[in-house]
Write a structure and sequence with these properties.
This protein has 354 residues and is α/β, with parallel strands linked by helices. It is 45% helix and 28% strand.
């Protein structure tokens, strides 16, 4: 009974705390610029595949050698899937006129490092001139390392009487670590525009009467690895695309009856009615109340993507009552304005000479 009472009392207390909160949260949807900016003169691009590197197992048992041979073919399929994932995204991007898959023998094997192969600029320029492309997208490397572990276990099996019974078995686990690196080369500026690495871990396990039977019992490993690899290519292509993002802001709902009424309006979706009340409160003789009203109007304008007006109201709020919260919000708005300008620049059309 006491436990029930305590739980009920806690719930009531939390309700009171929430209802008495001086602010309320609002989620603002924004469109962020692409993480990678390309010159709008880049219309034709080439994609080159990377070399496949497999880490050899120290324990060269017959089972490990068998798995290594399978992994070699699987890694080639996975690398090609990643390239196709990127190709599909770029092909759907209206900024590009042509997407060409290039031979992968152009990678500089003599420059192989732990981070994969870099293309020298002579090679980049040669590839671009030969294939009439403006930039090179390179899967610099595809590294795969599979760790094999075995342990004794049991499994159910039908005996000669068709009755299930537990028998001694082996459980195999394949932990595959995949790393692939991507780069974008712009020969006109000799600039490595972007360099990014994906890491994935895929674990597959199954049981069998012996290790080989357990290995054969693993389901969908190939499918999963290929699918994950294709997604890395798609994800890399997405770095060139603007993306939606949600940011959280809070606004004031306490201080005067008008603030409380405005909260009711915002909860019903009538933000304009709330704005009328906040504008009224900007003339309040109390600078703290007036500042809160200006701050709320800044949030409203940011919500409506009127960033210049939001900044004006934020500065008015700060001039009336200088708080750390408002100062930090002004800096956040500056960043949003910069990001918005970058977004507009990315979406702008290239200038053409007349």
């Amino acid at each position: 009974m006491r436990r029930y009472f305590n739980s009920t009392a806690l719930l009531v207390l939390l309700t009171i705390i929430v209802s008495c909160s001086s602010t309320r949260n609002v989620e603002i949807q924004t469109m962020e610029p692409a993480k990678v900016s390309l010159s709008n003169t880049i219309k034709r691009v080439g994609i080159i595949g990377g070399k496949v590197h497999l880490k050899e197992a120290k324990d060269q048992t017959a089972l490990n050698q068998h798995i290594a041979r399978e992994n070699q073919q699987l890694a080639l399929k996975a690398r090609d899937a990643a390239i196709n994932g990127l190709y599909n995204v770029l092909a759907g991007d209206k900024r590009f006129d042509t997407i060409i898959l290039l031979e992968d023998n152009a990678q500089n094997e003599e420059d192989l490092t732990i981070n994969g192969n870099y293309l020298d600029w002579n090679t980049v320029e040669y590839l671009c001139q030969k294939n009439k492309v403006d930039a090179i997208f390179s899967m610099a490397y595809y590294d795969s390392d599979t760790r094999v572990s075995l342990k004794k276990t049991t499994m159910e099996q039908l005996n000669l009487l068709r009755v299930k019974e537990k028998v001694a078995a082996q459980q195999i686990t394949l932990e595959t670590l995949i790393e692939n690196g991507w780069r974008i080369y712009d020969p006109s500026s000799k600039l490595l525009i972007d360099e990014f690495t994906f890491n994935n871990q895929i674990i597959s396990t199954a049981k069998g009467l012996d290790p080989y039977e357990a290995l054969q019992a693993i389901e969908d490993r190939t499918k999963n690895i290929v699918a994950h690899s294709k997604q890395t290519g798609s994800s890399y292509g997405a770095r060139l695309q603007p993306y939606e993002h949600s940011i959280s802001r809070d606004y004031y709902v306490r201080g005067t009856p008008d603030f409380e009424q405005a909260e009711i309006y915002t909860l019903s979706g009538d933000w304009e009615a709330a704005a009328d009340l906040w504008k009224k409160e900007t003339e309040n003789n109390d600078p703290k109340i007036s500042s809160k009203a200006c701050y709320n109007l800044a949030i409203l304008n940011e919500r409506n993507n009127n960033l210049a007006e939001a900044m004006d109201w934020a500065h008015k709020a700060y001039s009336k009552h200088q708080t750390k919260k408002i100062a930090e919000y002004i800096e956040s708005l500056k960043y949003r304005q910069q990001q918005h300008e970058l977004l507009l620049l990315q979406q702008s059309e290239p200038l053409t000479s007349k």
